[in-house]
Structures are given as C-alpha cells and as structure tokens.
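Deliverable D5.2: sample structural annotation.
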Amino acid sequence: MRKKSNIPAEGAQAPRLKKKELQERVLKFLEKESKQAFNYKQIAFAIDAMHPANRMDIITLLDELTAADLIQEVALAMARALSVDAIADTIHGHPTLGEAVQQAARML
C-alpha cells in the first residue's frame, strides 16, 4: 500500500484554505516549532497549504504578526506612561518570533 503524499499530483492544484483555518494552522505550527525559523514555503508545506493564494496569505499573516509585536511594545509603553528614555533603557527580546519568521521568509 502506497503512503499518501501532501504534494498534489502533477497538474493538480492543492485546495485553498479559508483564512481562519489557515491562520489557526500557521499559529499552531509556529507555537509548536518556536525554536526554529521557517520561510513561508516551509510553513505552507508543513501545514498542507500549498495553494498559491495560501502562500500569499501566509506572507500577509507573518507581516501582521510582526506589526502586532510593534503595537504591543507601544501599547505597553503608553499604559505605563514610560518616557522615551525608559523605553530606550528597556531590554527587548530580539528578534521576536514574528521577526524571525519574517526575516526567514524574505531570504527567499
């Protein structure tokens, strides 16, 4: 008995996932594999989202995650009424998970 492959047959196109399902798969994958950097193609293959539109959606999602990291930093600073000097003296984890994935995706 042959093992099923995630790669569609020649000439066939993988089905497109809905954005909500795609987002859930990407986030679950990144959470599970948090110690390693991946590019968008590797993520697409790992979560079985090989449709070309899904790849573009993954890139968009990675950009959104990076923006969320920045928004979180600013929101915390505003909530704590921190001065510019206090923000500058704070140790920030770098790269964040979102930045690491985005950098990996841009290397291709």
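Annotation notes: The chain has one domain: 19-106. The chain has a mean pLDDT of 80.
The annotation will be released with the project's public dataset once the embargo ends.
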